[in-house]
Amino acid sequence: MFIREKIKKVNGGKSYIQHQLIESIRTPSGPRQQIVLNLGQLSLPEEKWKTLANCIEGFLANQKTLFPQDPEIEAKARHYASQIRQERLDRAQERITGGESAGEEPAQYEHVNINSLITNDAKTVGAEHVAISQMNEYGFDKILQGLDFTDDQIAYSKMLIVGRMVHPGSERDTVRWLSETSGAGELLDSGVKLYDKALHRAAVLLWENHAAIEQELSKRAREIFSLKETVILYDLTNTYFEGSKRGSKVARRYKSKESRNDCPLITLSLTVDEEGFPKQSKVFEGNVSEPGTLKDILEGLKKEDGMFSNDRTIVMDAGVATEENIALIRKSGYKYVVVSRKKSFEDTFWPETDEEKIMLSDGKTTLGMKLVRTEEEAFLLCHSEAKEAKEAKEKSILSLKEQRFEEALSAIKEGLEKPKRQKKYDTIIERIGRLKERYKVGNLYTIKVEQTDGKATDIKFKKNAQAQAKEEAIGTYVLRTNRLDLSGEEISKLHRSLSTVEESFKTMKGNLGLRPNFHHTDTPTIAHVHVTVLAYHILAGILKKLRTAGVHYNWNTIRNILATHIRVTTTMNTKDGCVIDVRTCTAPTEKQHTIYNKLQIKHTPLGRKNIKSPMKTQRCSAEK
């Protein structure tokens, strides 16, 4: 083998240099030269080309080197030899079987030197196999074909989603993972060239068609899993960016769910059914008013009329449950279970009977309930031990703030009676305003500053009704619904199902790469979010199958279990002077076997590929 430099011309008269690995072969017409591999443009000096060619041929012949190699040459040689070996295996397999082997393969026997045996080019296939199998079950290729995606665009889209499920990261990191670590390319049987801009374009294309894709995925899930979809859960979350996002129309500073109020945010809304299957999503500005987002979601659900049960119930938290939105839900013909925004009710509103108590699913905490029905709605007063315990810490923090706020007010008041202290009315009002801003509890107090001739003479303050209501509300909340057919326990159960959508957000943020988001402009930023949502569509089906089969692992655990299922190439020398390359998957472990069984997919995702080629004696040492 040797390396040849070739100058190629393109349209416009421009030219570029390409280096090719050439092999001399014997033919009936005499010796000929054929291209083994296009190497691109080498950065090596010409005097090292022959050394590189010899080293590549040595790796292909599975020969050991006699002398130490230049690390740069050795790294390049290993890379190119791996590419050549893979191409030869693919061509050999096509000639022998025309594709994946079916049935039992015939026995093959060879005399081999066991000391020559090496295993290389290991690629993970476990979690990728699970993800791709679920995409195939959903008919993801046909969905994209129906939207006029090309074959290459479909391949990039699937790689992008598989990457987000198995190895969440930026497009650049996904390309590195797909090229160096993952066997997803072999599983997809795609020969597309991997580079980050191709994945960027695929992400944007998926986003431009996300509504149609999500609708089709939702439809396939409904058919496959016979989903009832009588309950629609709606909630919002936000995700933050470390960068400034200057010039962005969607990234805004606001209250972050992760308490990162110093960072720009975007908001994601999501509707899921009672089993956690996503239905539709939408990205809003980071400072969007939560109540204002419901109209868009209801319009989206209306477009899918006929796909859901007529007895649909929307479950929402207090952030969205304004009177206007409740009226909008009624007008749309939906039922609702929401957390009431009204914090206080007349004492006579609730019955004097004792609370009805139920044990929650954890088997440790109880929930007290009082149910009141009116002509149009039912109200359920809930007292949660778990919520009370959680809010106890918040209450202690609030009490400390109140104590320090009162001490600061008292210090200002005492200063009014001392000489050489500030007494100007406007200044005292300003100082009190600064205290309110510092301690964030000023709304819980009624404060009156008395004055004479522009000078403050006294400060009177006491806690107001809002403070009393806040203290009494520790551990309590009120649910309201127009489902008058439900018992108190059933109403509470529907509300507690909101944890399903909260778990969805947790999964997307923790396991599916919703963050970090490294993009600077709006379109790629939103596209990144929607790739995660599409990944969650696929993951929901996987988790449903496992839960039905009694396997309750989360996705991170499943990925870890499947991480050791790999595909490798084993190379060995034979007694008759040939080299055998065999590419196959490792046998699954007991836990991997169980997961594949529960998901009803093949234990070995790819068939065996092998090739036997003559071994030529070549030098692989640096030329003198």
Automatic annotation (TrEMBL):
InterPro entries tied to this protein: IS1634_transpos, RNaseH-like_sf, Transposase_11
GO MF entries: DNA binding; transposase activity
Domain of life, per UniProt, equals: Bacteria
Q: Mind listing the GO biological process terms from this record?
A: DNA transposition
**Residues in Transposase IS4-like domain copies:** 229-536
Q: Which NCBIfam families match?
A: transpos_IS1634 (NF033559)
> What's the name of the protein?
Transposase IS4-like domain-containing protein
User: Organism source for this protein?
Assistant: Kuenenia stuttgartiensis
